[in-house]
Structure formats: structure tokens, C-alpha cells
Amino acid sequence: MTSGSSRKRIGVLISGRGSNLVALHEAAGGENCPYEIVLVVSNRPEAPGLTWAKEQGIAALALDHKLFRSREEFDDQIDRVMKASKVDIIACAGFMRLMTSGLIERWHNRMINIHPALLPLFKGLDTHARALKAGVKVAGCSVHAIRPEMDEGPILGQAVVRVLPNDTPGSLAARVLKAEHKLYPEVLRLFASDQIKIKGDRVSCIDGATEAEDGDVMYSPALGSH
Ligand code: GAR
Predict the structure, then answer these.
(1) 64-90 confidence digits (pLDDT tens)
(2) Does the beta carbon of 116 sit less than 6 angstroms from any atom of ligand 1?
(3) The whole model's pTM is what?
(4) Which atom, in ligand 1's list, is nearest to the CA of 49?
């Protein structure tokens, strides 16, 4: 896939820092990447990720959820701006807002999310503190297609990160975040090029045997299998 016009058009939803957005964008600049980021939307006007996107010359829009009368109206506006930019896939990257089932159903299998835990464990907030409290020996992150229930949906990829004896929620979060930055672009690359497919609630990956270790972290699908 070489021509820019055949690349899948990605809209990214953020709420804050935007480090996963940066990772997705950097990968998009790589050779033959099958996707490009055409729009970034933040529900928080002050999000650092939004400023960063503008500095890169990416179309970036603040949609302050507090200015909408209802969740439905906010979600309708998200739908409108994504369609106006001819977005093919919405990638949530630290988007900390629950979405209505109406929006999720309109983007069925075309809206994905990264969550900093090994789903289906530790849905919701404070994942790392809860994981440490539970005494797990491995933690990680998951990229999944979005379904109406929070942090539910077919899992497209995961990275497994060792928990170290002296880990704090902060130290674990930092190691998981590094894995997120590798996993998310790789999964989006495979998903955008139909190498990861969702059939019903099952996910198939064209490469077959798909996990591999990279240093301390196990990735599935394997990184850089292209
Ligand atoms: C990331 O760790 C992401 O997995 C998490 O928020 C962080 C955003 O960081 N997302 C969620 O918790 C969603 N449930 P970033 O803004 O630097 O990408």
C-alpha cells in the first residue's frame, strides 16, 4: 500500500496527555503504513495531546462535553465530525468518557480502544493499583473493539508486562505505557490492512501463530511482523 489515498483514515479521540496518539502518528509516518491520522478530537480543550496535534499540523478539534446538553448530543457531534472527515476507523487513545450505545453501534467494529490492563481483568479506572492489590504477577494492556459495555469487546491484541516486586502503580503504569506505544500502532496497522479481522465476537489474525517476546514484554500479535 503506497498511495496516500488508499490509506485508512483514522480519527483519534483523546482526553489528555496523548502519548498513544504520538505513537500512532509516528508509526503512520513509517514506510507503507496502511493508515493516516486525519482528525484528533478531545473532549477536554486543555488536553496537551490536542496542542501537540495542532503543532504537527493534524486537524484537531476540541469538543467540550460540558457544553452539550446530553451525552447523546455530544456523541452525535463526534459522529458528525468523524463522518465529515471521512474517517474509516475511530481509535480511542486515553479517551476518558463513556459513550452512548447509539454511537458505538453506528461505529460497530470500526471503533477501537486501548486499555491499560489485561482484559477482561481490571476494567475501569485505577487499573494498576488494583492489579498490584490483587497480587498479580503479570499485567499489561489490551486493544479491543468497542462494545456498549465499558471496556468490553473483541480483543485485537495484548502485551504482557512482568510485575516487579517493588512496583508501585506509577512504576507499573510507566512500563505498561511503553508497551502500549508499541502494541497500539501494530494492532492498528494490522486492523487497518484487514490482517486482523473480527467475525462476530471472534478475532482472527492473518499471521496465525502470533505472539512474540520483545525484551521483557510478550506481544500478541508479534511486533513488526510485516
Ligand atoms: C493510557 O494508559 C491508556 O491506556 C489509558 O489512559 C492512558 C492515556 O495516556 N486509557 C484508559 O484508561 C481508558 N480506559 P495517553 O493520553 O498518554 O495516551
Answers:
(1) 999 999 999 999 999 999 999 999 999
(2) yes
(3) 0.95
(4) 16
